[in-house]
Amino acid sequence: MWFRVKSPATTVPSEEVVRRHSLRHLADVFGVPEVSLSLDARLGQELKANPASDFKANQFDIVDGDIKDVADKRLLKEMARGKLVIQTVGDYCEHMVRCSRINPEEVARVLRLPATE
Questions:
Q1: Based on CB atoms within 10 Å of each CB, which residue in 52, 64, 97, 107 is the most buried?
Q2: Considering the entire predicted model, what is its pTM?
Q3: Do residues 62 and 29 make contact, with C-beta atoms less than 8 angstroms apart?
Q4: Cα–Cα–Cα angle for 82, 86, 90, nearest 5°?
Q5: Contact by Cβ (8 Å): 47, 30
Q6: 90, 11 contact by CB (below 8 A)
Q7: Where are the beta strands (DSSP E) in the chain?
């Protein structure tokens, strides 16, 4: 008789780990030192992207993809209605923390979280 073996439940990373890696990821995407980022820094003002191109994603394209990749359907609907707007580094970090409870595997992939943390 064949039994289905359940895969172990995915460990939800701590909020601190997600916040730290969210900041690190934004610093990498925008090419700035991590210590220079403040939670109040606004995307498009303090953090500027390269001009958009048909051939290569710019920084805003990458961040927008990250935000949508980790969100569930409910959050995507809130974004489409304008109820959820991510404008600052802090908003991005909080979104990643919120989504780490909903979709930990995708958050780990997007932020490149180490398996041991």
A1: 107
A2: 0.86
A3: yes
A4: 150
A5: yes
A6: no
A7: none
Please write down the long-range contacts of 110-114, taking CB distance under 8 Å and 24 or more positions apart.
Answer: 110/25, 110/66, 110/69, 110/70, 111/18, 111/21, 111/22, 111/24, 111/25, 112/21, 112/25, 113/13, 113/17, 113/18, 113/21
Tokens of 33: 């030192």
* Structural contact between residues 84 and 76, judged by C-beta atoms closer than 8 angstroms: no
pLDDT one digit per residue (tens) for the chain, 117 residues: 455 554 445 677 899 999 999 999 999 999 999 999 999 999 999 999 998 888 888 999 999 999 999 999 999 999 999 999 999 999 999 999 999 999 999 999 999 998 754
Residue 17: how many CA atoms within 13 Å on its side-chain side? 16
Q: What single-letter DSSP state applies at residue 36? A: G
Pair of tokens at residue 77: 């609907």
